[in-house]
Amino acid sequence: MRRLIVTAFSIASLTLQIFAVQADDSPFDVGNRAQLFVDKVLVRDSKNVAFTLHPAEKHPQNPLVRADQPWEGWRLEIYGNVLFDGEEQVFKMWYLGMPSESYDHYVTCYATSQDGITWEKPLVGTLPAKDGRRTNVVSNALLASVMKDNNDPDPARRYKMVCWINEPKPAGGPHTYRSPDGLNWTRLSQEPICRSSDVLTAYYDHVRKKYVAIPKHNTQVGTQVRRCFALSTSDDFLKWTEPYYILKPDLRDDAGSLARIEEVRPILDQPDDPQLMRTEFYGVGVYQAESCTIGFPWVFTVNNNARYGNHEGPGEVQLAVTRDLVHWERPFRTPCIPRGRVGQWDCGFFTTPAEAIRVGDQIRLYYGGANYTHGTPCLYRAEGTGRLTEFTGSIGLATWKLDRFVSADGPATGGVMTTVPITFSGSRLEINARTRNKGMVIVELCDVHGRPLSDYSRPKPFQGDELRADVGISPETLASLAGEPICLRFHLRDAELFSFAFRE
Question: What is this structure's pTM?
Answer without folding.
Answer: 0.94
